[in-house]
């Protein structure tokens, strides 16, 4: 499966957010989207997922406009996890994860034994099986994030699109989660697209990187090729240097 963005422009009211965006993603690839606040990263993910309509251009999934694909069929192709919002609804964690099976069960369907087995499998894989009988709105922000990601896995779509998935995770869980994304891409051939504010996570995950700046794509390509000191310093308006630690790379501010 491929996702292609062609000549895409998007505006809110009269404010131009994205201009002349052209990108292509495929199964088994992992792409991080990096850029400062308010640059359009979240909007780009919504456009890819068919949740927003471009002013100009189109998003194609295997050659078909994403806006013309039925929701049930689209759910089998793309799982989208937006930024975490607080919830006041009292759903058990297992029920939230089972919502990821909606495309298979139907919106008013009852979970079958197979659906519950799949949900439990992914809860265990994400190391949160112990939360299955707890209420979702009683969990910490980090735990809620992991539950939503588990629901996306339960959807078993070809692509997983995540908006700042590590924003509520502590350092250790954030690291392990990035490793999980790498595994989903390399071992299971899932297409992964995610936004982040952390250049270190981009370096950790490798793959491809898209850097947004001033409505446009500043640069895109292989992470090791495009994520350099000059680009990082430019987009964040502060002197930044990549440091090679031998087993990994990190970014530091240079005063």
Shape: globular
N-to-C SSE string, H for helix and E for strand: EEEHEEHEHHHHEHEHEEHHEE
CATH architecture of the largest domain: 3-Layer(aba) Sandwich
**Rg to the nearest angstrom?**
18 Å
**How much of the residues is beta strand, in percent?**
25-35%
Category by helix and strand content: alpha/beta
Written account of the structure:
One of its GO terms (molecular function) is ATP hydrolysis activity. This protein is an alpha/beta fold and 255 residues long. The protein is 34% helix and 29% strand. The chain is built from 10 helices and 12 strands. Strands 6-7-8-3-9-10 form a 6-stranded mixed β-sheet, sandwiched between helices. A 4-stranded antiparallel β-sheet has the order 2-1-4-5, with helices on one face. β11 (240-244) and β12 form a beta hairpin.
Please render the helix and strand layout as text:
Elements: E1 2-12, E2 15-26, E3 30-34, H1 41-48, E4 56-61, E5 64-65, H2 71-75, E6 78-81, H3 93-98, H4 102-105, H5 113-125, H6 141-155, E7 159-163, H7 171-186, E8 191-196, H8 199-205, E9 208-213, E10 216-222, H9 223-226, H10 229-236, E11 240-244, E12 249-253
Parallel strand pairs: 3-8, 3-9, 6-7, 7-8
Antiparallel strand pairs: 1-2, 1-4, 4-5, 9-10, 11-12
């Amino acid at each position: 499966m491929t996702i292609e963005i062609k000549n895409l422009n998007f505006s809110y009211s009269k404010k131009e957010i994205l201009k002349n965006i052209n990108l292509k993603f495929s199964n088994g690839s992992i792409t991080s989207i990096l850029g400062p606040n308010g640059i359009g990263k979240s909007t780009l993910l919504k456009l890819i997922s068919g949740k927003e309509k471009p002013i100009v251009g189109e998003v194609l999934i295997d050659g078909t406009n994403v806006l013309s694909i039925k929701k049930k069929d689209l759910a089998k192709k793309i799982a989208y996890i937006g930024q975490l919002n607080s919830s006041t609804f009292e759903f058990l964690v297992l029920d939230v994860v089972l919502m990821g099976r909606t495309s298979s069960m139907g919106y008013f369907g009852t979970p079958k034994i197979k659906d519950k087995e799949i949900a439990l499998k992914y809860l265990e894989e994400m190391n949160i099986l112990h939360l299955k009988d707890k209420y979702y709105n009683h969990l910490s922000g980090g735990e809620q994030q992991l539950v939503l990601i588990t629901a996306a896995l339960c959807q078993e779509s070809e692509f997983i699109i995540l908006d700042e998935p590590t924003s509520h995770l502590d350092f250790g869980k954030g690291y392990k989660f990035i490793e999980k994304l790498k595994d989903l891409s390399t071992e299971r051939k899932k297409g992964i697209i995610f936004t982040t504010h952390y250049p270190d996570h981009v370096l950790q995950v490798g793959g491809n990187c898209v850097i947004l700046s001033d409505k446009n794509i500043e640069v895109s390509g292989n992470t090791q090729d495009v994520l350099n000191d000059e680009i990082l310093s430019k987009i964040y308006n502060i002197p930044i240097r990549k440091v090679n630690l031998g087993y990994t790379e990190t970014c530091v501010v240079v005063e």
